[in-house]
Amino acid sequence: MPNKDYDTLHTPAPIGDYRNAALREFIRSASYPYLILNESGGIVRTNAAFDRLLHHQPGTFDGSPLASLVASQSKKIYFDGLRDFLSGNQSRGLPLCLVRRDGHVISVRMYRQSDLLDDSGVKHIIVAVHDNVDAKRIEQRAEQLAERIKRRANDRIRALEKELEEHAQREALFRESQERQALAFWGAHVAWWEYDADSDVLTLSSRIGEVLGQEYATGVFSSEEFYSRVFPDDLELARTTFREHLDGQIPIVDIQLRLATGPDAWKWVSIRGRVVSGRDQRASQRMIGLIQDISEKKRVEEEWFLLFHHSLDMFAVLDDNGFFRQVNPAWERTLGWSASEMVGKPAISFTHPEDREKGQKLLDTLAKGDIPPLLVQRARSKDGSYRWLSCLLVPLDDYDISIGIARDVTEEKEKDLQLRTLNQTLEQRVLERSSELQKTLEEYQLLADELRRQKEYLSEAMEIGQIAYWEYDLATEEFLVNDAFYAMMRTSVEQEGGYRIKAATIQKRFLSSAHPGPLAACMARVPDANPLALQSFELPVVFPDGQPGCAMLRIRLEKDEQGRVTRLYGIVQDITDQKAMQTERERHEHMYRALFESAPMPVFIADGDSGMLIDANGIALQFVGKALDELSAMHYTDLHDDKSVDAARSTFQKVREDGSPASVMLNLRHHKDGYRKVNTVARPVSIGEKTFLIGIMIDIKASKEELDLLLRQK
């Protein structure tokens, strides 16, 4: 009989032992936000993407509790769900609101990814932060993960199978030397099993309790007792595999399935074995094999696969010679090359010829065992074009591989080139301008800045509002209000005696005595209103300090199937300041028109999309000899002669596209002299989503005459 103490077996290092190092590097460089927590919810480390998400500098949160980042409205959710989240019991993630550096609150969902051990063996938890998760894409990639894990597990199983075959061949030797047998299998984290088909008895080694739990500590089962503990979805696989092996259809039992370890508790195990005697006579057949707990391995490999395949950054594993051993799907999305087209080829072969020297130096530095610096180089796409990639290589010396992370920075490079070109062009234009034109442009810039400031003041004044929420109980005729309501009405809950207040008290305390009926009228109209519509009413109010004001009451209601009002709620907004700002805005509009009309040179305004003239000041109308209604039917090119039309069109088009001012010499129609040469300064102005082009004309002839007059006077 086999030795019952045959419960220790040394297995090779599990696949993916380099993951701790790889995970740390991946999280640090990933474009998605990640953070590492300890088991009490403290932040151990964050990556750059998480710091950018909250507008903080790198390392700001290291050592801080996660609770310090959570907004007040999410505190209860955080403290109630933290324990389940850290233990992995929340598969849908933990929804939280986090506070950015500027005070804004953002909504995120945190997902527990995997565990990570630091150098001292302390367990940390990797957490991914997402705004949205594409469930279908995750499911598809999870299927790919399962296939890859299956291949790796098969490799592992084949290794153990080979070892099992060697043990079967030396069975007699093992029985004679139980001590050598125990040492050979020491520390394997597996248990052996033996099945006698004649007596239908399955015997498990004494170590089975450590592997699968005390549910299996008895160690002796019938085949049906064992099958009753198999997960229902795996039962057919187990029965078929053992039956086919006993019938001689397959050479070995090699399966992975789930076994019950308690109520609603399951473990993934790998079962391998073979017939060692009685192959010719089934009644006396005897099988031996190994059973191993692979739950943790499957979880780690699944999480590694998800991190590797779902990254937007390009992630690769390279050997010591710089050849690709594995690449993630981001490479194909960016460059068009599939994994099969890249794996087994040198990374330098995809580099632009002009950048290969830099790339080779990077590989040489890696070969010396040093971490190379960040390198920006061009990589060839499948369509023959080149993309700029920011590349980082990190060596993992213990495994003779390197982890490569790349990011597409083509757009950033192109924008940088465009910016440098634009700066050079602008500098050249500045040098070519005359001092007189520069002075005129500066005066116009002052005028435009003043107009823009006035517009910003008006926009800010219109956006400022005080809003409070309320609910109305139809049965008690009471309003339920919040602190914001009392703050808006310039009082407090302590002064008013609570958050519930009668409608009659509202009328008496806050509504104008000159208008005693508006609130009652509003309430009377509400039951007949459309539940889908938002009812709005303006009410005159009197603040507790005696100051009059005005409030906007917005009401929404809910009705049941019989048409009865079941709920009444809404907001109230103090619009006293808005009323005052309306008067101020009208004054600024008059000021803008006065500045426009008082400009000392012709000014035309055209629609930025169609180019049709829409306005002009009085000097401009006198210059061309047209009335405003006549001018409104003209295109800006109609103001120039044939020689200037192309220059005018190209200049205004460039101003429209670049969003920056430009100047050009044009011949402008004059009501007396036919055409006059003018220096035209064109500038775009955006109001909301609409763009207008302002053209300021400087009459060269008039300026020359004024200069000659000044010279003669001197």
Summarize the structure.
With 714 residues, the protein is an alpha+beta fold. It folds into five domains: 31-133, PAS domain (Beta-Lactamase), CATH 3.30.450; 142-300, PAS domain (Beta-Lactamase, 2-Layer Sandwich); 312-413, 2-Layer Sandwich (Beta-Lactamase); 466-574, PAS domain (Beta-Lactamase), CATH 3.30.450.20; 600-711, PAS domain (Beta-Lactamase).
CATH class categorisation of the largest domain: Alpha Beta
Task: Give start-end ranges of low-pLDDT stretches.
Answer: 1-18, 132-136, 178-188
Largest sheet, strands/sense/barrel: 6 strands, antiparallel
What is the helix content? 25-40%
Q: Beta fraction of the residues? A: 25-35%
Characterise the protein shown here:
The chain has 714 residues and is of the alpha+beta class. The protein has five domains: 31-133, PAS domain (Beta-Lactamase), CATH 3.30.450; 142-300, 2-Layer Sandwich (Beta-Lactamase), CATH 3.30.450; 312-413, Beta-Lactamase (2-Layer Sandwich); 466-574, Beta-Lactamase (2-Layer Sandwich), CATH 3.30.450.20; 600-711, Beta-Lactamase (2-Layer Sandwich). It is 40% helix and 28% strand. The strands form five sheets. The protein has a six-stranded antiparallel β-sheet. It has a six-stranded antiparallel β-sheet with strand order 19-18-17-22-21-20, sandwiched between helices. A hairpin with a 5-residue loop joins strand 20 (535-542) and strand 21 (548-559). Helix 4 (135-169) crosses helix 10 (295-310) and helix 15 (435-463) packs antiparallel against helix 20 (576-597).
